[in-house]
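May I ask you to comment on the folded chain given beneath this request?
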Amino acid sequence: MKSIWTGAIGFGLVNIPVKLYSAVETSNLDLDMLDKKDHANIRFRRVNECSGKEVSWENIVKGYKLNDEYVILTDEDFETASVEKSKVIAISDFVKEDEIDSIYFETPYYVEPEKSGERAYVLLQEALLKTAKVGIATFVMRSRENLAILRATDEVIILNKIRFAEEIRDASELALPPKTGIKKGELEMAVSLINQLTGEFDITAYKDTYTDALLKLIKAKAKGVKTKTPHLKVVQSKSTDLIAQLKASLSNRKKVS
């Protein structure tokens, strides 16, 4: 794996030199964009708005428009704005992970220590495990300040970027139903169904079946096999009796198991 960020974790007065690695990879099929007429690849070019000529990456700079003029920024400028935040994952607080709503979670990264920081890394890892806490931290990556948590597993410390509060939309804008009209029997039956479907979580039991089905379709088309598109229409259940629907769900589950 190739590291995508190098710096240090700031843990009190302790600095732990570390590298970050992406902890995830996409399972999507690599689809190309083609011209419908001749199936030629579609290329996206970085074009100068005035000259119409293509611009190579090494000649592209970042700028901020201020008073109708662009102020050009270099990598050094981003670090100068805050050298500490550009190079340090600064832990400010420790909290229980279950206090953080899942809506805030974004991207996970593996944290690997440099040789000089191995003992301090293991110390932080063991302390996080022993206290069952996660560290709240801020750091700068790709010229943007990020909020994150640092949590430990038995194998590795994981940095999980989380969203700032202002990035979450207000759910009050949605047309949500009032929490009234639910009967006691309906709730008890729904709880029974949940309990019947409850088990130990095993992530390996869940597969990306859509990508597998899409790949099968692609291979079939390559062989000239014609495929039919199934028609699936989402409709409301004919029965408006929630109790009857829940009972049917429970009995159906018993038959399956």
